Amino acid sequence: MEARVRQGTVRPSGVERTFADDEVIVSKTDPAGRLTYVNDVFCRVSAYTEEELLGKPHNVIRHPDMPRCIFKLLWDTISAGDELFAYVVNLSGDGAHYWVFAHVTPTFSAGGQIIGFHSNRRTADPAALARITPVYQRLLAEERRHTRTPDAVAASSALLDRVVRADAGSYDEYVWSLEPEKVAR
Q1: How far apart are CA 21 and CA 28, in angstroms?
Q2: Which of 65, 69, 123, 134 has the highest count of CB atoms within 10 angstroms of its CB?
């Protein structure tokens, strides 16, 4: 199983996995992004055991259809000490994929230093996914136009910035604009 945990060895199967609306996928990492905690929901949905995951980089579940510029934005934001909400498609150890609405926050020491990161992921609303998927496809297409990763990320980051500015004032406002209004009953 150890070989399977290496990034890039699992190929997407096209099978979508879901989890219950009342479940939360939880993980914690050290400052370098290596997993230090995973809950049982994370293990079940990702199709990895706790032993396979702990100590591994969180990007072991990175799906190839996830734009790199979103991860750059995520790391830039949380490394600066801020939280980020984002829609993310992940790749399970068996090739299935699953969408989440992620909330990622830095964890601080008593002295104010970042000592790790904490992420809670909930199910992603289908209406929001219908709106974000074409944007991610555009970002991926832009990334694929470039042979060098830094150029690809810079170009897709610029495109994301244009999309965000056209639809909302900030990335946070853009993400929250995708969430459908919840009707109180």
Answers
A1: 21
A2: 69
**Rounded Cα gap, residues 136 and 156, in angstroms:** 10
Q: What is the pTM of this model?
A: 0.90
Give, in degrees to the nearest 5, the angle at Cα 139 between 13 and 43. 40
Q: For residue 138, what are the domain limits? A: 2-178
Q: pLDDT under 70 in the chain at which residues? A: 1-8, 181-185
For residue 161, tell me if it sits in a domain: yes
Q: How many domains, the chain?
A: 1
Q: Is residue 185 part of a domain?
A: no
CATH of the domain at 140: 3.30.450.20
Helices (H) and strands (E) in the chain, counts: 6, 5
Q: Per-residue pLDDT tens for 122-144? A: 999 999 999 999 999 999 999 99
Cα of 66 vs its chain's centroid, Å: 8
